[in-house]
Amino acid sequence: MRVLSLGRWLRAGRVPPREPASRPSGHRHSGHRPQGPPQELPQGPSQVPPQQKVSVEVLEHLEHLALVDFRDSEGVERLQKAIQFADQLHEVNTDGVEPMDSVLEDRCLYLREDDVTEGNCTKELLENARETVEEYFVAPPGNIPLVKLEGQKTFLQGSK
Amino acid sequence: MAAVLAMVARGCGGVWRRLRQRCAVRPGSGPFPRGERAVACNARGGMMSAGKSGLTPWIPVVGLEIHAQISSNSKLFSGSQVQFAAPPNSLVSFFDASLPGTLPVLNRRCVEAAVMTGLALNCHINKKSLFDRKHYFYADLPAGYQITQQRVPIAVNGSLSYSLCIDNKMSQMVTKTVRIKQIQLEQDSGKSLHDDARSQTLVDLNRAGVGLMELVMEPDMCCGEEAAAAVRELQLILQTLGSSQAVMAEGQLRVDANVSVHHPGEPYGVRTEVKNINSIRFLAKAVDYEIQRQIEELGNGGTISNETRAFDSKLGCTVPMRDKEGKQDYRFMPEPNLPPLILYDAKSLPANMNHQQVINIDWIRERLPDLPSVKREKLVEQYGILPEHSFTLLNEDGLPEFFENVVKQTQMKPKKVIGWILNDLLSYLKQHSLTVKESPVSSFLLADLLNLLEKKEISSTAAKQVLATSLSAFPHTCKQARDLIALLLCYVEMLVTKWDGTEDAAVTEKNWCLQGF
């Protein structure tokens, strides 16, 4: 989430300002209570993994999975910077700390009664589709495999 | 055998091409669990010899992944209706269509159904379970991901016991167990209709978002018959609980089989996944065919690739379904819009929470109905019938009740009644594809007939004749007709007692009356 929100910094090509590490709070992480106000991250890159170039195979795999297009060197560079930024998380010592996977973890999951309250809006839904056939949405016959453009492939391989 | 298979395989070639276009590449099935086999398969040997050469035997290994549609009024995360046949895209909410700004809201009934099923299958219910997103692209999955429970599902480590006959005469039954790895809640996808003529797919989202329970079974089975028996028992359990109607023909119960073979003492072989199985009978056929195919292939020096195959019911063979997809990377991530699902029991029940927001596992456990295995035992105990008979009774919807009604209304011993039910009545119903509810003869009539037999007023042969005649005389149930026959039989009885005639006379009289209709 943090990587996404700092997208505009990345696009501007500037280094985003350092933010204090988000210390886990609450009853579960008693072993790592902050001693005082949140401190600045240590500047040393000792715990951050060395910057690695993203390989062509990984780029192709990512393009296939997420249907993004890295198009040119600027796109790949942006990706590298994003990875580098996220790698700062490694500077935090999380030994023996259970991972938190949602900030909603202490919220109550609301349970809905099993009543029919929605639906019957076929016309509205179909308005969003460019092409419909007798109230069905129309899609291509199957997943269209990604076409590897010749130029793109050479570029990616050349940047290795 | 090899020649037959080769012929069939050749015949399947063209089908493969058409099928590939028809069931266009559809990613989405999760990883198959590979664990230790707790139960060695040795029903009737279980091992299959490698054919004429008599080399080391093969052990087939079968695991199942079952998706059961939850029986509820509305969908898992939205308030649109769950219904089988409806105008396309009429049962779709904005959330189901994945329009921006919509969020999932969990349906309480679906959670209860999953807990019930987990308890019935002896699972450990996780008091805290989590939801995840499983990403893949396909036209009938508008969001681009499916909300499922990959990391911590709602129920784990259960077992399912099922029975099957050793021989074909239903005289020796053996009980087997298959371990349930986990049960998880997940969303169903929409339906794709492939229009090859116009090279397009039509998408109907009515089914998108319907609640599913995915049951993952460990590879404890060894042949098609075992797989079929296990699924049949699961179907009966789900129907008894009411958590799913489990009708395979309507897509409420979908089964994918994972099949591999290996030599004893060696590690498991490469498995293939078989999909497109539409009935329990086809499940047995598909599994057995795939086992044979793999044995043949390996026997001829070939290899088995980890692929997905579709079962073609017309040809009775499996054909490759996916070719260049390779291994899917689903990029599982926690569902950010749903907190963990917390379930309670009697001990941990919170004091001051709205009871509508609380699901109590113990409360649900207390209210579980008698499972089929318990019902079978009760019938054996109460009526003194054989376990095999009890098994056949419960296999037909409504037949146990029919049997009990007849027993209540007749002096004939249940052990004798069961013969009439299973041999005469059931065989007729099966021959004419009728359900017990559609039986032309009601339990009242049958009881009446059996009473006459008990009182020795008619002979056994005569009774059989009368039953056969009444069954065929009225192919459609009609309450008035049945009442009429009842009246008629009473009349005939009166006649018989007044007459003091011979058996044959009584039978003739009855038959004559029935044929008059």
UniProtKB/TrEMBL annotation, chain B:
E.C. designation(s): 6.3.5.-
Gene Ontology molecular functions: ATP binding; glutaminyl-tRNA synthase (glutamine-hydrolyzing) activity
The keyword Ligase is annotated on this UniProt entry: yes
Keyword terms, alphabetized: ATP-binding, Ligase, Mitochondrion, Nucleotide-binding, Protein biosynthesis
GO biological process: glutaminyl-tRNAGln biosynthesis via transamidation; mitochondrial translation
Cellular localisation: Mitochondrion
Record domain Asn/Gln amidotransferase: where: 401-489
UniProt xrefs under SUPFAM superfamilies: GatB/YqeY motif (SSF89095), Glutamine synthetase/guanido kinase (SSF55931)
Annotated Gene Ontology cellular component terms: glutamyl-tRNA(Gln) amidotransferase complex; mitochondrion
Domain of life: Eukaryota
Annotated function: Allows the formation of correctly charged Gln-tRNA(Gln) through the transamidation of misacylated Glu-tRNA(Gln) in the mitochondria. The reaction takes place in the presence of glutamine and ATP through an activated gamma-phospho-Glu-tRNA(Gln).
Family affiliation: Belongs to the GatB/GatE family. GatB subfamily.
Quaternary organization: Subunit of the heterotrimeric GatCAB amidotransferase (AdT) complex, composed of A (QRSL1), B (GATB) and C (GATC) subunits.
Protein name stated in the entry: Glutamyl-tRNA(Gln) amidotransferase subunit B, mitochondrial
Organism of this sequence: Catharus ustulatus
Lineage: Eukaryota, Metazoa, Chordata, Craniata, Vertebrata
Gene from which this protein is expressed: GATB
